[in-house]
């Protein structure tokens, strides 16, 4: 089933001569001097969500990493992504109102990774040997470190020993792996602080090869970008000095670097963001709002400034191919998936009958996927052709408020019945999160007690890329209700808009890059008001699908505002502009 999906992802543009043309299109002609196959852009991430290449992630952080690499591949930019290959991956099950899990073993060889050699790191008085494996994809590669007991993504406590072991392995092991395959990083982008140790490994290499430690810090800082996805520094787990004595210090060769790092502890504890800020002069947040409100301070107590580089998506991965062709034919996006020169004018040419026709094709794709997925009752959900599909698809976490549309079950039931709507919910509960597992159970018991909801609300367990894409292409309306101020960016809503769906959302994350009348905005001074606003917007969205004029207006407004935001090539251009 993944085979079918990945074939669609990796069709490449065949009319791009080489990277020079892309550099020219984004006004960065001189970049061919800064980036080369031997001196690539390096991207470090503890999470990658790219199952076609064997690696399953947890959510948006990993999807972003995968999309960034895909965009670089499509535009032929030299790019290396360094990440762990997790030998085990968790899956969610759901039956009899109980959240469950099973674990699957994965082998890198099965996904076309080639074994290169081994590297060593030191931990707890022992030498740990890590396999270095790689896969080349066009101008890019995925370079992984792994070993049979590496464990799963986000296993154990976030300040725990195993996480620290994984993070140190990625940083020190990954840095050696890069040298093993003969690469020098032109730039190191740290996708969140779990990758701090990669920059530390570079600093240690420079300092132990004779560079003055302060010069080494300046050099490392200038070539390191820290991309923050979190809002509150205080929420981050910390590590103890004693943990660093077991896992980190044994990997440092430079006494001066060891001293530098030791000095960063406060009462015997350290937060990785504190030191990441010290080692990276370039810092970015993932949407305009997020970059503005992320509340981080450096050791001197000064507020850290983040450059806003709003996330984008790899459009061909997440969009129905017929829709991609349509947007290109209408010259709304160009061959680089950037907004075309006259996209604002060209969006005006979209007609409701095209939207309906393309959405029917999207529905067929959704139905194909639903034929091998089950709902909370273990059956394949079936949606009549004339019904509307609404969805809520995102990790099942508190701040995203998956229960918000269910606040008044009778009201929701009435709307679903009146407008013949099927409502799909998808989102995994993190294993061990008993609070959220309980909330999911309550929610689905509420559904079970109401005959209309029971017929029309479908929870799809084990949310993954396949479901994310199928719902984006097949749903008419998607709902996104994070508590305002808590979503860093989010990318699911981008998949919905580019697939010509109506977005009902609170004004948060990357959605807030554009004015609140760019989509159907849910607002209110408190949650009760937001719930009222949400039901009104649900009704408005359902009615719009009955009326060509309204449908056209909403879709055109969304595209005019968000095509530049959504474009992953625009995101890559913004990073390249900031970095070079
Ligand atoms: C797109 C996607 C995400 C991103 O989720 P947000 O909540 O919008 O950040 C997460 N998981 C999967 C499987 C996806 O396809």
In short:
With 580 residues, the chain is an alpha/beta fold.
Largest sheet geometry: 9 strands, mixed
Unreliable stretches: 1-16
Radius of gyration: 24 Å
Classify the helix fraction into a percent range. 40-55%
CATH topology of the largest domain: Rossmann fold
Calculate the mean pLDDT score and round it.
95
Distance between the termini: 41 Å
Counted up, domains total: 3
Order of neighbouring strands in the sheet with most strands: 5-6-7-2-1-8-9-12-13
Which keywords apply here?
580 residues; alpha/beta; Rossmann fold; nine-stranded mixed sheet; six-stranded parallel sheet; 23 helices; 19 strands; 18% strand; globular; disordered N terminus; binds pyridoxal-5'-phosphate
Please, could you describe this protein's structure?
The protein is α/β, with parallel strands linked by helices. The protein folds into 3 domains: 1-33, no CATH class; 34-309, Glycogen Phosphorylase B (Rossmann fold), CATH 3.40.50; 315-567, Glycogen Phosphorylase B (Rossmann fold). The protein has 23 helices and 19 strands. The strands form 4 sheets. The protein has a 9-stranded mixed sheet with strand order 5-6-7-2-1-8-9-12-13, sandwiched between helices. Helix 5 (161-180) crosses helix 6, helix 15 runs antiparallel to helix 19 (465-474) and helix 20 (492-498) packs across helix 22. It starts with a helix and ends with a helix. Residues 59-60, 63, 394-395, 463-465, 468, 490-492, 495 line the site of pyridoxal-5'-phosphate.
């Amino acid at each position: 089933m993944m085979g079918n999906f990945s074939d669609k992802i990796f069709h490449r543009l065949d009319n791009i001569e080489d990277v020079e043309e892309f550099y020219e299109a984004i006004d960065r002609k001189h970049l061919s001097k800064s980036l080369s196959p031997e001196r690539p852009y390096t991207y470090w991430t503890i999470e990658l969500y790219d199952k076609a290449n064997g690696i399953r992630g947890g959510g948006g952080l990993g999807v972003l990493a995968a999309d960034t690499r895909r965009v670089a591949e499509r535009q032929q930019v030299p790019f290396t992504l360094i990440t762990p290959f997790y030998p085990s991956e968790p899956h969610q099950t759901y039956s009899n109102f109980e959240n469950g899990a099973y674990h699957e073993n994965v082998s890198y060889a099965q996904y076309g990774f080639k074994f290169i050699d081994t590297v060593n790191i030191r931990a707890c008085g022992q030498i740990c040997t890590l396999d270095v494996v790689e896969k080349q994809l066009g101008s890019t590669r995925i370079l992984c470190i792994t070993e049979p007991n590496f464990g799963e993504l986000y296993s154990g406590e976030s300040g725990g020993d195993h996480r620290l072991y994984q993070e140190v392995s990625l940083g020190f092991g990954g840095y050696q792996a890069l040298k093993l395959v003969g690469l020098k990083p032109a730039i190191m982008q740290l996708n969140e602080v779990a990758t701090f140790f990669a920059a530390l490994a570079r600093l240690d290499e420079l300092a132990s090869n004779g560079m003055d430690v302060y010069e080494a810090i300046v050099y490392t800082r200038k070539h390191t970008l820290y991309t923050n996805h979190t809002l509150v520094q205080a929420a981050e787990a910390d590590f103890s000095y004693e943990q660093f004595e077991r896992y980190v210090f044994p990997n440092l060769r430079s006494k001066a670097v060891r001293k530098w790092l030791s000095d960063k502890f406060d009462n015997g504890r350290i937060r990785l963001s504190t030191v990441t800020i010290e080692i990276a002069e370039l810092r970015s947040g993932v949407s305009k709002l997020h970059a503005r409100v992320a509340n981080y301070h450096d050791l001197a107590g000064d507020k850290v400034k983040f450059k806003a580089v709003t996330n984008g998506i790899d459009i061909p991965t997440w969009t129905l191919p017929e829709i991609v062709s349509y947007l290109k034919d209408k010259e709304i996006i160009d061959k680089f998936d950037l907004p075309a020169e006259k996209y604002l004018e060209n969006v005006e040419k979209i007609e409701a009958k095209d939207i309906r026709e393309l959405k029917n094709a999207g529905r067929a794709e959704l139905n194909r996927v639903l034929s091998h997925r089950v709902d909370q009752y273990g059956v394949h959900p079936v949606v009549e052709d004339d019904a509307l599909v609404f969805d809520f698809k995102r990790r099942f976490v508190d701040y995203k408020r998956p229960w918000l549309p269910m606040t008044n079950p009778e009201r929701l039931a009435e709307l679903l019945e009146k407008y013949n709507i099927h409502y799909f919910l998808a989102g995994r509960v993190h294993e061990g999160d008993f609070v959220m597992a309980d909330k999911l159970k309550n929610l689905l018991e509420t559904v079970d007690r109401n005959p209309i909801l029971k017929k029309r609300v479908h929870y799809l367990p084990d949310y993954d890329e396949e479901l994310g894409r199928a719902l984006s292409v097949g749903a008419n309306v998607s709902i996104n209700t994070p508590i305002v101020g808590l979503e860093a960016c989010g990318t699911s809503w981008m998949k919905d808009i580019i697939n010509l769906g109506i977005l009902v959302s609170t004004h948060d994350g990357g959605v807030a890059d554009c004015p609140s009348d760019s989509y159907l905005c849910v607002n209110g001074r408190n949650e009760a008001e937001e719930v009222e606003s949400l039901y009104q917007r649900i009704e408005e969205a359902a009615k719009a699908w009955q009326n060509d004029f309204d449908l056209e207006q909403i879709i055109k407004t969304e595209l005019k505002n968000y095509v530049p935001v959504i474009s992953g090539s625009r995101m890559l251009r913004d990073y390249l502009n900031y970095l070079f």
